[in-house]
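Limitations

Structures in this collection are predictions, not experimental determinations, and the ligand pose is part of the prediction. Treat each record accordingly. The example that follows, with zinc ion as the small molecule, is included so readers can see exactly what is and is not provided: the inputs are given verbatim, and the output is the predicted complex.
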Amino acid sequence: MIKISPSILSCDYSKIGEELLRMENSGADWIHFDVMDGHFVPNITIGVPIVKSLREVSDIFFDVHLMISHPLKFVDAFAKAGADLITFHLESESDVRQTVDAIKKAGCKAAVSIKPKTPASEVFEYLDILDMILVMSVEPGFGGQSFMADMMPKVREIRDECNARGIEMDIQVDGGIDDKNISDAARAGANIFVSGNTIFSANDSAQMISLLKKNAQQAYVG
Ligand code: DX5
Ligand code: ZN
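Predicted complex:
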C-alpha cells in the first residue's frame, strides 16, 4: 500500500503539536521523525521527549528514523515514547540482528536504512527479519536537499530480490521527494514516501499530500 510520511523535521517547532495535527488532518498516513545525534550525522535534531509528548496528542503511526551511532542503546526509550516503527542505519555501530530483535521485542516494526554509498545487496541477508527497508535518496543529516535519482536502481534491486523470494516488504524512500520525482521512486518499487520540505512549504498541505499519493499510485510497479 502507498503511504506518505511527512517529516516533522521541516515543521515550525514553536508549535510542533499543532503541526503534527495539521499533517494528520491533511491526510498523512504516518509521521516521520528524524532523530540525529551530531555524531552519525553532522546535525542534532529531536529526541525521545519530543516523540513522547507528541504521542499524547495523536494516535497516528510514528515512523522513527534513527540517524545515530548506537541505535541499540535507544530502542527501548523510543519504543516506550511511542514509536510504531524504528529504522536504524546498517552503517551504525550496532549489530543488525541484535538491534532488529530488540525492536521487535519492544513491540515495534523494524527497518534498516542504507546511505547513498551503501550497495543494495548489503540488506539482502536481513530481508526475512525486516518489515521495511529505507533507501536514502540524500546523504542523511539535513532536510531540503536534492533528490538523488541514481539511488532508484537500488530500490528496484531490493524490490526484485523481495519478489524473487516471495517476501512482502515495505520499501521507503527518504530525501528530496517532490510531486515529480515521487513517480520515479514508485516506478522503482518504493511504496512509502517521506517528504519534509515539499509538504511543509506547500500552500495547501492536504492538496500536496494527495497529489504525492496520486502520482505514486499511478507510477508504482511492485
Ligand atoms: C534526511 C532526513 C529526511 C529529510 C526529508 O537526513 O532523513 O527525512 O528530512 O526531508 P526533505 O523531504 O526536505 O528532504
Ligand atoms: Zn528521515
